[in-house]
Amino acid sequence: MKIIKSMLVGASLALVASVSHAASSGNTLATVDPEADRLALQSYFQKRFPKVAVSDYVNGIYALDAPSREQWQEIEEFPPYEFDIEEGEELFNTAFANGKSYADCFANGGEGIRQNFPRWDEAQGQVVTLELAINQCRESNGEKALGWKKGKIAKISAYMASTSRDNVFDVQIPNDAAKAAYLDGKQSFYARRGQLNMSCASCHVAGANILIRADLPGPTLGHVTHFPVFRSKWGELGTLQRRYGGCQKNVRGTPQKTQGEKFRNLEFFQTYMSNGLVVNGPGARK
Q1: pTM, entire model
Q2: Tens-place pLDDT, residues 230-259
Q3: Which end of the chain has fewer surrounding CB within 10 Å, N or C?
Q4: Per-residue model confidence as pLDDT tens digits over 118-145
Q5: Structural fold of domain 2-27+41-56+173-285
Q6: Mean per-residue pLDDT for 95-111?
């Protein structure tokens, strides 16, 4: 607890002005400017870590900390998610009872499209993440929805991500309704919560690469690019929103609903911040 409090005080006092610049535009629909926010966040990290290329942020904390990077590179020599990709491919290509498959639900047969998610769906009037689209595909074909956090849905998502590697994220905000979802995600990202009174930004903007207990939090820039991830802590593959829930528990808060509107909007905001970076998932993390 003392370490956490020290980290919060030190990071907050030293970097509060910079974090404000990272959230460059306003907090109302009339004043928010997603592209200004994205450029401000990139500028913040470029100024703070001038030797790190923006393109390297897809590697998370391993872009910032050399010893951690060496350990990670050794792990990636024999990727722990390799079998998950293979299982995901098999699941993806297995026909539903009605003879259709996941490929029938997605553009380009579901290959090479990870960079377009999450997306604003005008017909549904909401943000649709890749995992939500996977379950919507199942349900529209008479199949039961999968669990959101791990298992089959993570493996299918990992396979789809693997077919999209090196594709550039290009999340679009086509209208005011989509902008409102983006704004809600931005507000969630910077809102403090839990008994520790911490926000996502506390660890992943101000606290990036600052030791908290035995961990170095990664930067929010590029955070989404490598999901789903195989975490050593989990001993298995998991989705981004599983990680969201874990973070909210870590600050002694009540986790919001997985694939609920709040988490989907948060993912929408965070992914827009990584527009211009490439897909490199699935990945391995501590």
Answers
A1: 0.92
A2: 999 999 999 999 999 999 999 999 999 999
A3: N
A4: 999 999 999 999 999 999 999 999 999 9
A5: Cytochrome Bc1 Complex; Chain D, domain 2 (1.10.760)
A6: 98
Determine if the peptide bond prior to 282 is cis (ω within 30°): yes
Find out whether 223 and 88 touch, Cβ atoms under 8 Å: no
Burial (CB count within 10 angstroms: exposed 0-12, middle 13-18, buried 19+), residue 22: buried
Same fold flag, 2-27+41-56+173-285 and 82-162: yes
Residue the block writes with tokens 């450029």: 39
Query: Which residue bears the tokens 């490199």?
Result: 280
**What would the mean pLDDT of 11-20 be, rounded to a whole number?**
46
In whole angstroms, give the CA distance from residue 205 to residue 202.
6
The domains of the chain are located at 2-27+41-56+173-285, 82-162
The CATH number of 82-162 is: 1.10.760.10
Angle at 210 between CA 232 and CA 62, to 5 degrees: 50
Residue 220 structure tokens: 């929010």
Please identify which of the residues 137, 200, 203, 247 carries the catalytic annotation: 247
Give the 3-state DSSP-derived string for the chain, with helices as H, strands as E and coil as C.
CHHHHHHHHHHHHHHHHHHHHHCCCCCCCCCCCHHHHHHHHHHHHHHHCCCCCHHHHHHHHHHCCHHHHHHHHHHHCCCCCHHHHHHHHHHHHCCCCCCCCHHHCCHHHHCCCHHHCCEEECCCCEEECHHHHHHHHHHHCCCCCCCCCECHHHHHHHHHHHCCCCCECCCCCCCHHHHHHHHHHHHHHHCCECCCCECHHHHHCCCCCCCECCECCCCCCCHHHHCCEEECCCCEEECHHHHHHHHHHHCCCCCCCCCCHHHHHHHHHHHHHCCCCECCCCEEEC
CA end-to-end span of the chain: 21
